[in-house]
Design a protein that fits this description.
about 150 residues; Neuraminidase; four-stranded antiparallel β-sheet; globular; Integrin_alpha_N; FG-GAP
Length: about 150
C-alpha cells in the first residue's frame, strides 16, 4: 500500500504479504464500515485473500478462502450477487473453466465457494446488469477464445 502525500509523491510503503501468486486485486467495503478493504485472487495458491481496513491506511493480516485444489483464480470481480446488500466475491477459475462465487457471510467473512461452468478458462471478468432485470450478470473473457 502506497499512501500519497497529496502532492504527487508517496509516503512510506506498507507491504501486506499474500500467500503465493497474487494475480488480481479489488478494493471494496466487505464489512460495512465504509472503509475500502482489499480482496486478492492468489492464483498460485488457489485461494482468495481478504485484508480488512482497520483505519489510517492500515489493514489486517490476510484471511484466505480456498477456491479448490489447483483451481488458479485468474479473474476477480466483486458485487452483491444475492441481493442481501453485502459485497460478494466472484472469481474465474482458470483450470476448471468455472466461475466461483463466495457469498459474504457478514462482518467481512465469506462462505465456501460455489462454482458454475463457464465454457471458457476465465482470465478477465466484470459484473453488471446487462439484460435489465436488476440482477448482476457475469461477463468473462478467456485466453484463446473468440
Amino acid at each position: 500500500v502506497l499512501l500519497t502525500a497529496g502532492d504527487g509523491t508517496f509516503l512510506t510503503i506498507r507491504p501486506y504479504p499474500t500467500i503465493n501468486g497474487p494475480w488480481r486485486i479489488a478494493l471494496v467495503d466487505v464489512n460495512i464500515d465504509t472503509q475500502p478493504d482489499i480482496v486478492v485472487a492468489n492464483r498460485d495458491s488457489s485461494n482468495v485473500g481478504v485484508f480488512l481496513n482497520v483505519g489510517s491506511g492500515t489493514f489486517s493480516g490476510q484471511t484466505t478462502y480456498t477456491t479448490g485444489p489447483s483451481s488458479f483464480p485468474d479473474a476477480l470481480a466483486v458485487a452483491d450477487m444475492n441481493s442481501d446488500s453485502l459485497t460478494d466475491i466472484v472469481v474465474g477459475l482458470q483450470s476448471s473453466g468455472q466461475i466461483g462465487i463466495l457469498l459474504n457471510a457478514g462482518s467481512g467473512t465469506f462462505g465456501a465457494i460455489t462454482a458454475y461452468p463457464s465454457g471458457i478458462s476465465p482470465e478477465g471478468m466484470a459484473v453488471a446488469d446487462v439484460n435489465g432485470d436488476s440482477k448482476p450478470d457475469v461477463i468473462a473473457s478467456g485466453n484463446n477464445v473468440n
